[in-house]
Design goal:
There is one protein chain. With 185 residues, the chain is an all-alpha fold. The protein has seven helices and no strands. It is extended, with a radius of gyration of 22 Å.
Length: 185
């Protein structure tokens, strides 16, 4: 989960850095990586301050989850009540107030704080590495000798929406197969 969270955060930050802040190198690393695409935005485009509010609320919530135990416990308690199917069914069919059957555990500890700090730092580092990959020393870039053998894997995902659906289906099937296999043990 740490790796998935870091890589997802890095992808979102990389897009945000490039699109909203304008950071990054202008061209691809080599001629073979060029793609015939137009720019995503006009050069002089005003970005209004209120468009940053949702991102700032998400960032503030993430910081509060990491460093404010009462907020984290409240969010966890709400999540448990949200997932409590029996209470929802009772509230809908019996017109009663839902009562959560589960209690929220206390969320705290040094490891939790360390991971909460480590995730965004790693995500920001990977995003900046991806944005400024031309300026990164050659030894730290993606090894160019791996591009040839990995080309067939890149061709499996063309960016077409159908490819996303197909690979999502493959992933769910693989996850279900592993869960079934683990359940048999």
């Amino acid at each position: 989960f740490l790796i998935a969270g870091v890589l997802t955060g890095a992808a979102v930050l990389r897009a945000g850095f490039r699109i909203f802040v304008g950071l990054g190198d202008s061209g691809p690393v080599d001629e073979s990586a060029k793609v015939d695409e137009g720019p995503e935005t006009r050069e002089e485009q005003n970005i209004y301050w209120f468009l940053f509010v949702p991102a700032l609320v998400c960032l503030g919530s993430a910081v509060a989850l990491a460093f404010w135990p009462a907020f984290a416990n409240g969010v966890h308690s709400c999540a448990i009540r949200f997932m409590d199917f029996r209470s929802y069914a009772h509230a809908v069919y019996q017109r009663a107030t839902p009562q959560s059957l589960l209690a929220a555990p206390q969320l705290h500890g040094g490891l939790a704080v360390l991971l909460a700090v480590l995730r965004p730092l790693l995500a920001a580092g990977i995003a900046l590495w991806a944005v400024y990959r031309i300026r990164v020393p050659r030894a730290l870039r993606w090894p160019s000798h791996l591009e040839g053998p990995l080309r067939p894997l890149r061709e499996l995902q063309s960016g077409h929406p159908g490819d996303y659906v197909a690979w999502l289906t493959v992933g769910f099937a693989a996850l279900g197969g592993v869960a079934f296999w683990l359940g048999l043990r």
